[in-house]
Amino acid sequence: MATVLSTSVDVCFNPQYSDTKKHSLFSKPSCLRQSRTRKLNISCSSTKQPKTLEEELVTKTPSLSEQLKPLSATTLRQEQQTHVLSKPKSVWVNPTRPKRSVLSLQRQKRSAYSYNPQIKDLRAFAQKLNSSGFTEKSEFLALLNEIPHPPDRDNSLLVLNSLREWQKTHIFFDWVKAKNLFPMETIFYNVAMKSLRFGRQFQLIEAMALEMVEDGVELDNITYSTIITCAKRCNLYDKAIEWFERMYKTGLMPDEVTYSAILDVYSKSGKVEEVLSLYERAVATGWKPDAIAFSVLGKMFGEAGDYDGIRYVLQEMKSMDVKPNVVVYNTLLEAMGRAGKPGLARSLFNEMIDSGLAPNEKTLTALVKIYGKARWAKDALQLWEEMKAKKWPMDFILYNTLLNMCADIGLEEEAERLFDDMKESGGCKPDSFSYTAMLNIYGSGGKAEKAMKLFEEMLEAGVQVNVMGCTCLVQCLGKAKRIDDLVSVFETSVQRGVKPDDRLCGCLLSVMALCESGADAEKVMGCLGRANQKLVAFVKLVIDEKTEFETVKEEFKLVINGTQVEARRPFCNCLIDICRGKKQQERAHELLYLGTHFGLYPGLHNKTVKEWSLDVRSLSVGAAETALEEWMRTLANIVRRQEDLPEVFLAQTGTGTHRFSQGLANSFASHLEQLAAPFKPSDRAGVFVAKREDLVSWLESKFPPLVASQA
Asked: In a 10 Å sphere around its CB, with 0-12 CB exposed, 13-18 middle and 19+ buried, how is residue 539 labelled?
C-alpha cells in the first residue's frame, strides 16, 4: 500500500510578476527588489515520491524557445507581421551560470575533427594557387584541374578556406559548384562571402545570398552578418538595413558584430531615432551591448554635438557594468570636443587614467585638440609635461597637434621647447608639418630671421617643403620688407616641387600691396606670374586708369570663378589694398562693389530698428577703410532724402586675436581720426559707436552740397 506523504512548503509570492507572459529573463533586478512579496504556506498530500522545491521550479520554467517565440513578430517595421521561417530549438539554460550576452540560435555547426592525410598536399596546392598570377580566367581554371586529390566536400572546403584573393575564391567556388559532386552547404557560401567581403564585392555576395534562397540553402547568422557588414563597408546603407530587416523576420537573433554594424549604419545614415529604437529593442531581447556598440553610439552623438546623448551613453555603460576600453574613451573624447565641452573632456580623461587604462596617441591627440580649440594653453602644457613624465606614447600627429596649438595661441617659447624635444626623441623626428607649424609661429610673430634660419635647416635636413610652409614664410618676409629673400624662398620652393595654390597667390598679392617701391612690386609680380598668369594680367588691368568699369567687371567675374571659394574674398581684399596703395580710390570702391555684388562680403551691413552696423572683421585694412567711406556716402544720401535713421551707429573690427586680423582695429581707429568721424571706442573691444545727431552733423559738414540741397 502506498504511503501518503504530507508536505508543507513556504513560497514567496509576488503578485506584480505573476503573469506567465512576463518572465524573469527579461526583468530587471532593481524592479524585483522594489516589489513587495507575500509569504504563503501550501500543504499537499500525495501518494508519490515528493519533489523538492528546486525540481518544481525547474519543471514549471518555460523553455527558452517558448520565451523567444514572441520575438519573431517584433521587427523594425512593426506594421508588418511575417511568419517565422525557422523555429528555434528548445535550449535549456543552467540557472547557476550567467546568461550569454547574445543567444546565437542557428550558428553553423562545427563538424567533429578527423585527421585527413591529404591536408599537406591540399595546402601545398592552395599555396600554389595563391602565388599564381593570371590574366585570364581560363589560366586559373587550368590550374584547378591539377588538384592532387578528388574535390570532395572536405578537400574543397580546405582549399576554399585557404585562398587569399577574392577573385580566386570566387572562381574556385563556381568551379566546385559546377562539378556538382556534393550538395553545397551553408558553410561553403559563408567562406566564399567572407573572402568577397574583404574585396568589397557586395553585388557578388548579394547574388550568392539570393541563390541560396532560390536553392533552399539555409542562411544562418554568419551569412546575414557577412552580408550586412559588407554592405556597411561599401557604404550601401540601404542594403544593409534591408538585409537586417530580412534577418529579423526569419527569427534569427543578431550577434554582437551584426548589432554593432547595423547601429553604425543607422548612425552614418543620420537616423538617430532609429538607432535608439533598435538599441532599446535589442537590449529588451537579451542583447548586452559591448564596448564597440557604445563607441558607435558615442560617435553618433559626438558628430551631432549632442552632449545629452553623450551623457546617455555614459549612463548606459554604467548601468550595464560595461567598462570602456581605450577606443571608447577616444570616441567619447572626440565627441566632447565637437560638443564644445573641454572641462568634461578633462574629467573623462582623468576617469580613464583612474581606471588603470593607459592612453594612446589618439587619446592624447584628441585631448590636445580640445584644449587648443578652447585656448586652454595651461592645461595643454601640463598634459605635455605629464606625457614626458609618464612616458606615454607620442607620434608625429600628436607632436604636430601640439605645435599647431602653440601656433594658434602664440606660444613661441613653448613651441621651441617642444620642437627641440621632438629633435631629441628617437622615433619622432620633425617632418614637413612640424617645420610648417614652426614657420607659422615665427611668421605670425614677425620673426623673419628665425624663420629664414629654420628654412635653411629644413633644407639641410632634407625635409620636403610644402605649400603651406612656403606661404607662411613668404608672408613673414613680405611683412619684414625682405623682398629679395622672399623671391629666393619662392624659387627654391618651386624647384623642390611646391605647386603654388590660391592661398599662396593671395599671400603674394598682399605683399604687393605692402611694397613701397615699384621695383619690389615688380619682383613680387614676377613670382606671381609663375604661379598664376591670369591673375597677373587682371592686376595690370585693374591698376590701369584707362580700363572701363564694365571690362573690370567681366574680368573680375572670370578670375573669381576660377579661384577656390576660401581664397576669393582674400583676393578681393588684396586687390583693393593694391588700388589704395596706388591712390586709385575710385577703383577700390568699384572692387568693393563687385565683391559685394558677387557675394564675397555677406553680413557687411546689418540693420535693426535702434542701430545700424558695419562689420569689417573679414576685411583687410584697405578694404575696411573703403567700406567705411562707402557707408558714409550711403548715409549722406539718406540724410539728403531726409529718411529716418536709428539712434546708434556701430562699426565692428573685432578684437584682433586672430593672427591674420592683428592691427585692423588700430588702423581703423587711425582712419577714423583722419576723417574726424564721430565714432568713439565703446566698452566692447573692436567696436566703435556714433550717435545719430553727431553723425548727421558730421555728414553735413563733410558733404557741403547737403546744406544747399536742404535749403
From this structure: buried
Instruction: Count CB neighbours of 136 within 10 A.
Output: 8
Separation between Cα atoms, residue 232 and residue 674, nearest integer Å: 64
Ramachandran region of residue 199, left (φ > 0), alpha (ψ -120 to 50) or beta? alpha
Residue predicted with more confidence, 417 or 613 = 613
From CA 581, how far away is CA 286, in angstroms rounded? 74
Cα–Cα distance measured from residue 613 to residue 631, given in angstroms and rounded to the nearest whole number: 10
Single pTM value for the model: 0.61
Amino acid at position 346, single letter? R
Give backbone dihedrals phi and psi of 77, rounded to 5 degrees, phi first.
-105, 100
All three cell numbers of 541, joined, read 588691368
pLDDT of residue 427: 64
Q: How far is CA 343 from CA 337, 350, 387, 409, in A?
A: 10, 11, 19, 19
- Which comes out higher in pLDDT, residue 224 or 5? 224
Q: Phi and psi of 469, rounded to 5°?
A: -65, -40
Q: How far apart, in whole angstroms, are the C-alpha atoms of residue 676 and residue 678?
A: 6
- Amino acid at position 388, single letter: K
Q: 3-class DSSP state for residue 519?
A: helix
Residue with cell 557604445: 294
Render pLDDT for 108-125 as a digit per residue (tens, 0 to 9). 455 544 556 678 888 888
Q: Decide if 222 contacts 107 (C-beta within 8 A).
A: yes
